[in-house]
Write a structure and sequence with these properties.
D-Amino Acid Oxidase, Chain A, domain 2; eight-stranded mixed beta sheet; 351 residues; alpha/beta; six-stranded mixed beta sheet; FAD/NAD(P)-binding domain; 33% helix; 3 domains
């Protein structure tokens, strides 16, 4: 490739998505990944694209909403271009309602969702039916939102890789120097590098663990019970996750905490009791101090940009992150919310 309009450093969900959005707009794109596609937290198992509660609205919730609303068409184009299915489905989600106060709050959010979600999705309170694919609810009622979606993280990364290659993007592996405008989407290692470069702690990593079961519920809603995401995938598997650990010895080694996750999932959903364990995963998810995705220009480094900090919501935020960064880098159009800027994590120091 003689000339590059954009170099993307990192083959995780933010790097792949931003590279794809630039390539689909006609830019010459080169993506450089040191190890392998999805080597960090983007190589996980869960893939729950779940919205924030429709209340106390802010820029972060609005940004995520816009991303979730654009996701069906965005992922459909990825799949059509590369011929690889990311396993995306706007499947909805069921949650048990534990007590009368929570039931009152859940019902109050019905009207809020009608306004905040722009009539594009619904937040409902429905009677539990006792079906096998329902968590037990002490009140006899469930929250059913129709905005939640899912995809398989590894299949999504493969779909983006195939779509990039179909658009003529170059994907290379190893330690290479970038050329031209460069977007750094390097996850947890990138946050550590930013800490060193900027002379303060603006981000850190949180370990997560998840597992995959052989249980086919591919057309059913995902569940959120006992703080666990239970996500049926298109390939007939079901993912369970995840932990959030600030202290760890081995960042990529699953441990006994997965046994606790499995026990809690089976208690919430007995139909999973005999499901075979297919895979166990552990990795470090990047979290900015602002607790929002960190987007924008790299302070003091002209021509370099950052997309990082997708902690827990990276796949759900990816379409909007990609279009926002493509607007900034390719068109000079800056629509990044103030709380998402790198400076927001600098200002978050000491919180």
């Amino acid at each position: 490739m003689a000339r590059v309009d954009l170099t993307v450093m990192g083959g995780g969900i933010f790097g792949l998505s931003c590279a794809w959005e630039a390539a689909r707009r006609g830019a010459r794109v080169r993506l450089i990944e040191r190890d392998r596609i999805g080597a960090g937290s983007s190589g996980g198992l869960v893939g729950a694209l779940a919205p924030h509660v429709p209340e106390n609205w802010n820029d972060k919730k609005q940004f995520q909403l816009e991303s979730l609303l654009m996701a069906p068409d965005w992922w459909a184009e990825v799949a059509a271009t590369g011929g690889t299915d990311p396993g995306y489905l706007q499947s909805g989600r069921l949650q048990p309602i534990p007590d009368d106060r929570a039931l009152q709050n859940a019902r109050a959010r019905i009207a809020e969702s009608e306004t905040l979600w722009q009539g594009r999705a619904e937040w409902r309170v429905i009677p539990a039916t006792g079906a096998d694919w329902e968590p037990h609810s002490p009140t006899g009622y469930l929250i059913h939102d129709t905005l939640t979606a899912r995809l398989h993280p590894r299949r999504a990364a493969a779909a983006l890789t195939a779509a990039l290659r179909a658009k003529g993007a170059e994907i290379t592996f190893g330690a290479e120097d970038p050329q031209g405008p460069t977007l750094w989407a390097t996850g947890y290692p990138g946050l550590l590098a930013l800490n060193d470069a900027l002379g303060q702690n603006i981000g850190a990593g949180v370990k997560g663990q998840a597992l995959l079961l052989q249980h086919d519920a591919r057309d059913l809603p995902q569940l959120f019970a006992d703080q666990l995401h239970i996500v049926p995938h298109a390939d007939g598997t079901t993912a369970i996750g995840s932990t959030s650990e600030n202290d760890w010895q081995d960042p990529t080694a699953p441990d006994a905490q997965l046994d606790d996750i499995l026990a809690r999932a089976r208690a919430a959903l007995p139909i999973l009791t005999k499901a075979k364990i297919l895979d166990r995963w552990a990795g470090i998810r990047p979290r900015a101090r602002s607790r929002a995705p960190m987007l924008g220009a790299w302070p003091g480094r002209p021509g370099h940009y950052i997309a990082n900090g997708g902690f827990k919501i990276g796949f759900g935020m990816a379409p909007k992150v990609a279009t926002t960064m493509a607007d900034l880098i390719l068109n000079g159009q800056d629509t990044i919310p103030p709380g998402f800027r790198v400076e927001a994590s600098l200002q978050a120091r000491g919180r």
